[in-house]
Design brief:
The structure is a homodimer. By secondary structure, chain A is α/β, with parallel strands linked by helices. Chain A has 9 helices and 9 strands.
């Protein structure tokens, strides 16, 4: 099922890259998996990291600096791609906010995108089933999820809709309300159609008001992030959490931008947050 | 003199990229500089990291994972490019072991390379003078140097020839004896000419025998490094150090390869080694 693309020893564990034929995305998909050093017979809890616009599995693998702390805490880190891939997948090559690299962790309903753009089902169902069926020492009964930007939106929405699956959720600079942000509205319309009621299931702030399925949320956000005011707007998340009684830890980080220089700085904090809730 | 290309906050400090017109390389050059958080009025000691074949300043900036520990230890990290750059610089575009990305930290003597390929002078003289003349809070009286592969060779040779400049030196998987390694002999001949006596000044093992200018050396080397037997050969370094009375700490790291997964794993150890000697 899974084909090993590469394996490299790192911090006493192994950084893998695997590829496999995806049914729900109707294409070959690639993902990164870090396996920490483990005692014989032990299995690692699984933390999912969802990346942002334009990324593949590789950006966080190269620049996220998660391995040292994941090794120390005994966490496996799974980093999926951000969209279906391949020449047969419809795309807008001049638009970095839609199509390949911009799957928005939803299941598209509109032609011609519905055939491939099913990243919600991919992350929720297909990839975990593939991992569970593998011989990797992963404890699939203990999972958490986090992500960056579009992937922060993905992590929060998946956690809200699958509280039995994820013990904790956090985000770096998430898109708080994609249904109203200028940079995501066109994508949601193309993937899900013009009826905005269909978008509600993929909007963190609206889902929080609806679901009451999580108790707490950790978010780090840089104050020098160029997307802060128009794309990200964490205050909308703060309002939604307050109204729904969700305890939000929102750390506004002075002078930090939207890059992996920001993410890597606070990676340890997020991994510790998840590890404490996976014990 | 220096033009700031980018600056991003990271681990409480700032990751800069600068460009400038280089006299000794007769082209524009780019380098990365990490400045740790510092008390008001303080200056950071400077640790030079020299990269390997095919790299620019960016590979270690993205994948080296040096910022967390550099911030903790208060070290500035300077990462130069590995060769002159630009359309006017002679190159062999199909050869990754020569030309652009493969400057070997030497001063070429042969046409047409001698005009641009002067990375020894660049790292030894020009770039430190540029930094010293800047308003960056750098303590140029305290410097150390390390590097990877071709950059490990560069670090060791520069340290051996400039003991007054570098308080400590270390390397990840250095090319121990470039004058005899198959993958570097053709480059040395093209840069320095057929007379091998001219190569001696750029060969770590031969310089150690000649100079007696350093007392100790830290080297980490992965046992699964595909270049170990033909390109790197740390046992030649061990022999040279033993004969010259240099205390070599050679850590053979089981299962590690030649990549930044290896380098990042042992980055903390090397930064601590240098910090202890820069105090």
């Amino acid at each position: 099922m899974m084909k090993q693309i590469s394996a490299a020893r790192a911090f006493g564990g192994t950084q893998f890259v695997f590829a496999h034929a995806s049914q729900v995305c109707a294409c070959d998909m690639t993902f990164a998996l870090y396996l920490p050093p483990l005692p014989a017979g032990a299995k690692a809890p699984v933390v999912w990291y969802l990346s942002g616009l334009t990324c593949t599995h590789q950006n966080v693998m190269d620049k996220g600096e998660y391995r040292r702390m994941a090794a120390e805490l005994g966490l496996a880190i799974v980093c999926p791609d951000t969209s279906p891939r391949g020449d047969d997948v419809p795309d807008e090559t001049d638009n970095w906010q839609f199509g390949k690299g911009a799957g928005f962790y939803l299941d598209a309903t509109q032609a011609p995108f519905a055939r491939n753009y099913n990243m919600a089902s991919y992350v929720r169902d297909e990839l975990p089933a593939l991992l569970a069926a593998s011989d990797l020492p992963l404890d699939m009964t203990r999972q958490s999820i986090f992500g960056h930007s579009m992937g922060g939106h993905g992590a929060i929405t998946l956690a809200l809709k699958n509280p039995e699956r994820f013990r904790s959720v956090s985000a770096f600079a998430p898109i708080a309300q994609p249904s109203t942000a200028n940079w995501s509205r066109p994508a949601l319309e193309k993937y899900l159609g013009a009826d905005e009621r269909a978008w509600r299931g993929y909007d963190s702030t609206l889902l929080i008001a609806d679901s009451h399925s999580i108790r707490e949320l950790l978010v780090d956000q840089g104050t020098a992030d160029p997307f802060l005011d128009n794309g990200l707007r964490p205050w909308l998340l703060a309002d939604a959490c307050k109204a729904a009684g969700v305890h939000l830890t929102l750390n506004m980080r002075e002078g930090y931008d939207h890059s992996y220089f920001f993410i890597s700085t606070f990676m340890d904090d997020h991994l510790r947050w998840h590890a404490a809730r996976l014990r």
